[in-house]
Specification:
Blueprint (H helix, E strand, L loop, with lengths): L1 H18 L15 E3 H6 L7 H7 L1 H11 L10 H9 L2 H13 L4 H17 L7 E5 L7 E4 L2 E5 L9 H5 L4 H4 L7 H13 L9 H18 L5 H4 L4 H9 L1 H10 L8 H8 L16 H16 L5 H6 L3 H8 L4
Parallel strand pairs: 1-2, 2-4
Antiparallel strand pairs: 3-4
């Protein structure tokens, strides 16, 4: 009896491992990820740190930050230091900096999650270059900024859904729910995927958009295979369960309304953009239901094509073929 039970446990363990082929062994991949605390060094100028030293330490980052994030202009402009001082001494910005310091005394958790994510990236793409990651304060603008070889994360956009700043700025509750520290690494890896695998449509209809989004989410699942799917989707569990329970009805609605091959931009926004619910569906539905369906299509395709690797999937921009060969029918 003991032998039988032991054999069954081995079989069950094997089946469990095989059930998610994205759970691969990355233990032999060595990688060190450190997030550069750019915002700390930037505001250290208020305590007498050298601007020239900042330029030398962060040449590309300071340029990106000054020109694209806070829009102060060229760092070599004669008036740049004057503009920068005004920003650094702004009372509101200094309150935000203090809040960032209290919420993020370190980024150990985020660095560990990024380490695991990029180790998985290296598993699939051994020659991939890992971007340098830095933190910043954007004045509640962009959450993530990307430039060649670097990705910046705005810590002021992840202070927690109950942060009073977001209420004062009248950020909708459905957006605040994901303005939390646990989303930082995930959003950085998502930005990496969107940058490395840009959307290349043939027709630019809703079908192509949702399958592209599904590919990106599948890529994110491959980098973070321990995350539950509702977490990958940035859904609450009840919202994810609504999708599971109503999958066939949601898909039928899209087909019956002839939305799937629509090229109207407002149709894409309705099914893909952040929203409290998906217009046309019950108010209990979550937003972005098109992206969830896109992920289910891609998962169905990959299940039926076990020989297709992640890199092959990500370079396949024939969305119509992916849909057809997925045989998706909830």
């Amino acid at each position: 009896m003991r032998r039988i039970l032991f054999s069954l446990l081995i079989v069950f363990a094997f089946v469990a491992c095989q059930s998610n082929k994205l759970k691969v062994d990355v233990s032999d991949i060595e990688l060190d990820i450190k997030v550069l605390r750019f915002e700390k060094d930037l505001f250290a100028l208020n305590q007498g740190a050298s601007l020239e030293g900042l330029k030398k330490k962060y040449p590309q980052i300071l340029k990106l930050y000054s020109e694209k994030v806070i829009r102060l202009g060229n760092v070599d402009d004669l008036n740049y230091r004057q503009y920068l001082n005004k920003f650094l001494t702004d009372s509101t910005m200094n309150v935000v900096v203090d809040r960032i310091d209290s919420v993020f005394p370190n980024l150990n958790q985020q660095e560990e999650e990024l380490r695991e994510g990029f180790k998985h990236l290296k598993y699939y793409y051994p020659k991939a270059k890992i971007p340098r990651i830095f933190s910043q304060l954007s004045g509640f603008n962009q959450s993530i900024v990307v430039d060649e070889g670097i990705i910046g994360v705005s810590l002021d956009k992840y202070l927690g859904e109950d942060c009073d700043f977001y209420a004062l700025l009248r950020r909708p509750i459905y957006l605040r729910e994901n303005m939390i520290p646990n989303r930082i690494a995930q959003d950085i890896l998502l930005a990496y995927g969107l940058t490395e695998f840009p959307f290349k449509p043939k027709v630019h209809n809703l079908m192509e958009q949702i399958i592209y989004q599904g590919k990106i989410l599948y890529f994110l699942q491959a980098l973070l295979p321990e995350k539950a799917e509702f977490d990958i989707m940035k859904y609450k569990e009840k919202d994810y369960q609504w999708c599971v329970d109503n999958e066939s009805q949601a898909w039928a609605y899209i087909i019956e309304q002839k939305h799937l091959f629509s090229t109207q931009s407002n149709m894409t926004r309705n099914y893909i953009n952040e929203a409290p619910f998906t217009t046309g569906m019950p108010q209990e539905s979550p937003g972005r239901i098109g992206t969830w369906i896109g992920l289910q299509i891609v998962k169905s395709y990959m299940k039926k094509h076990s020989d297709v690797s992640l890199p092959t999937l990500m370079t396949n921009n024939d969305y119509a073929t992916i849909l057809r060969e997925s045989a998706y029918q909830p």
